[in-house]
Write a structure and sequence with these properties.
The complex is a heterodimer. By secondary structure, chain A is an alpha/beta fold. Chain A is built from nine helices and 17 strands. In chain A, a hairpin with a 4-residue loop joins β5 and β6. In chain B, the strands form four sheets. Chain B has a five-stranded parallel sheet with strand order 3-2-1-4-15. A five-stranded parallel sheet of chain B has the order 6-13-7-8-9. Chain B has 21 helices and 15 strands. Chain B is of the alpha/beta class. The longest helix of chain B is centred in the C-terminal third of the chain and has 29 residues. The interface between A and B is large, with 40 and 41 residues. The structure holds flavin-adenine dinucleotide (2 copies), iron/sulfur cluster (2 copies) and FE2/S2 (inorganic) cluster. One iron/sulfur cluster binds next to α9 and α11 of chain B.
Amino acid sequence: MNKIISKEYFSDNVVKLEVEAPLIAKSRKAGHFVMVKVGEKGERIPLTIADADQQKGTITLVVQKMGVSSTKLCDLNEGDFITDMVGPLGKATHIENFGTVVCACGGVGTAPMLPIAAALKKAGNKVVTIIAARTKELIILEEQMRQHSDEVIIMTDDGSYGNKGLVTNGIEDVIKREKVDLCVTIGPAIMMKFVSLLTKKYNIPTVASLNTIMVDGTGMCGACRVTVGGKTKFVCVDGPEFDAHQVDFDEMLMRLGGYKDIEREELEKMKCASGARP
Amino acid sequence: MDIAEERAQEWRVNLRNQMKAKERTDIPRVHMPELDPVYRSHTRLEEVNLGLTPEMAMQEAKRCLDCANPTCMQGCPVGIYIPKFVKQIETGDFGGAAKTLKETSALPAVCGRVCPQEKQCESQCIHTKMKKEAVAIGHLERFAADYERESGNISVPEIAPSNGIKIAVVGSGPAGLSFAGDMAKYGYDVTVFEALHEIGGVLKYGIPEFRLPNAIVDVEINNLRAIGVKFINNCIVGKTLTINDLKQDGFQGIFVGSGAGLPRFMNIQGENLVGIMSSNEYLTRVNLMDAASEDSDTPVFMGKKVAVIGGGNTAMDSVRTARRLGAERAMIVYRRSEEEMPARLEEVKHAKEEGIEFMTLRNPVKYIGNEQGRVTQMILQVMELGEPDASGRRSPVEVPGKTETLDVDEVIVSVGVSPNPLIPHSVEGLEVTKWGTIAVNNDTMQTDIPMIFAGGDIVRGGATVILAMGDGRKAAASMHKWIQNRDQLVADNC
Ligand SMILES: Cc1cc2nc3c(=O)[nH]c(=O)nc-3n(C[C@H](O)[C@H](O)[C@H](O)COP(=O)(O)OP(=O)(O)OC[C@H]3O[C@@H](n4cnc5c(N)ncnc54)[C@H](O)[C@@H]3O)c2cc1C
Ligand SMILES: Cc1cc2nc3c(=O)[nH]c(=O)nc-3n(C[C@H](O)[C@H](O)[C@H](O)COP(=O)(O)OP(=O)(O)OC[C@H]3O[C@@H](n4cnc5c(N)ncnc54)[C@H](O)[C@@H]3O)c2cc1C
Ligand code: SF4
Ligand code: SF4
Ligand code: FES
């Protein structure tokens, strides 16, 4: 049981939670994640550790409402307890001074990018962050990202905020403007696929943080498996970050869709139960 | 008292003299009452075996000849004093039988259910040499343990006075639990760290309710709590806490029972299609996360045409689970013949009764999916048996050019597990074998780092509950000795 110390809304659908977890706060590094379960019959879901305070013994999670489990977590309040939390999991991000790094994030991916951008900045990199979303309301964490980046570029599909265009348009503009030494990308698999195709064209080393479906998060089940460089890897223990140019994104996309129907049903059920219109 | 002296006790002699050996061996072996196969293939949570009645158990116990040389005991990896507990059952002293079991086994209710008895104790029973069915040692063991638990009079083991020495256990499977129990009895202050949110290891997340109810495992865990063992779940040693953290926290001995939790895949074409998963994933979803219940947030596929690859207990548990979740065709695909299957005989029998199809001498070579990437078919290579291999089993060889296509909508890969690499990777200097298991001194279970002992599947690769439990007990005895010697040395040098 881990107590929620504070809760803050970044937008209607994005919540920042500060959670008591002294041991995890002590041992975590940028790129690590935790598995979280809300309620006795809850699902275990992976969430990146966005920040930690060793003195206070807390970690910060930034959660976006996606389906049943993330919504249950977002609906918890200050003083409530998270039933189960385990971590830190995964391999930490490889941080060094690469030079200029483009952090390309979309949708859910902005939250897990935050600690990575911060660590890269701290290591002396010039950090150019690109936040992309369909429309203005879905842009999250802009302020926080500005604190840890040299420059933040906003891209919206409909042009309602920042520049009109896709994340890849934003990246290409930067590549054309200056020498980019590394690209880090986190977001929907389809987005990461196109980022990877683009940077491959320009020969820019690219790291993608993969958000596959997970069950245990400790290497025990293989639900999170992806093909990287022709070999099967487990994202929870071998990743979550991989050389994007080696990742089989088409396979990953296919696997992510695996439980879509069941998930949609569950979400409808929950909405009906809570009285909201489906 | 040694075995011969015990056997010479008056009550044992009298009991033996009550019936002739021939009369005893002529009694037919008891049949375990079971749920009806049709009914049970739709109920996930009810145990298949219903347990013996006291009358049945006493009758079965009569079959045992109370041999002067009880070969059955040699077949039991922990050497349970079998004739003694069986004869106690014969006299109706069920509590005494349970006590006898507990002298050697920490988890008799579990082992009575899941041991491969036909390969262990029962295979060495004198009856088998006379071409008769062995005494149902497993059923009797389960009976005595269940009787004690249900009576509510669980004998509390004697606990030595606390010595204040802190001992850590990594993993709460049978190895860790039995180690923890013994160390607590010796007077140590024991804390068990478990990575998952549930305590119990494979007993909880792997073996299904219909074979081993969680409630039975929980009773054992609560007994350990009652004698002072502390459990910390959601804590991964090597991640949340390092071995060094444990040392700094004052832990003076560490037992690693972290199991063989990593699933193996076959690396064949199409294996990452949607609907193909490891048995660990499938069973974890269903058992640990209760995914098949309405109120669980975790989803699980409920395939109609399910193929399970493999012939071990894990494969049987998976295929029988699939059947219970509504599979019209639930199939075992195994590359050897039924004779070579490593699963317990009883599981194979139960599976057949439940309508599981056995496709033996078949090996998958490729999976085919639809546009959504969901598996729809698998290609099977037909095999035949060749020469015996290193394991002594006849090895399967391909029949050239002979393949079959099978329609499936879910495939569960159950071809073995590898040792959990977390501890081996995170402890500098710990000697690891080429199979990734932790190397130990077989007599003491001590690793090359003196304060670290290990046992169970992390040392043996995938093995059995009773072996894991035996390792835990052996490690406890030798760690206790090691700590006493060490303290003696310190005292001598002062
Ligand atoms: C290593 C890792 C770190 C992550 N860090 C964060 C984080 O810091 N903050 C955060 O908000 N989310 C993060 N995620 C994603 C988060 O785990 C998922 O959003 C969550 O599991 C969804 O669960 P749900 O039950 O709410 O939604 P579901 O009902 O499971 O899914 C709803 C919809 O979301 C899609 N979906 C499911 N899983 C994912 C996923 N992993 N990524 C993208 N889409 C998905 C489904 O296809 C479905 O359409 C991370 C994922 C991974 C693997
Ligand atoms: C489906 C299935 C059916 C089986 N059926 C039978 C059967 O019928 N009969 C039989 O005899 N055997 C059976 N077995 C085998 C038997 O269950 C195992 O041999 C036995 O459980 C091994 O015990 P263990 O204590 O070594 O490890 P496990 O039971 O695997 O327990 C290890 C525990 O350690 C935890 N852990 C791992 N790493 C860490 C860490 N770093 N920090 C903290 N915790 C950690 C794991 O989460 C796990 O809970 C079966 C196995 C499976 C999977
Ligand atoms: S522990 Fe297993 S092998 Fe030993 S006597 Fe009991 S059932 Fe037989
Ligand atoms: S070998 Fe069989 S008959 Fe003899 S003591 Fe053991 S169980 Fe009884
Ligand atoms: S989530 Fe189970 S192995 Fe990665």
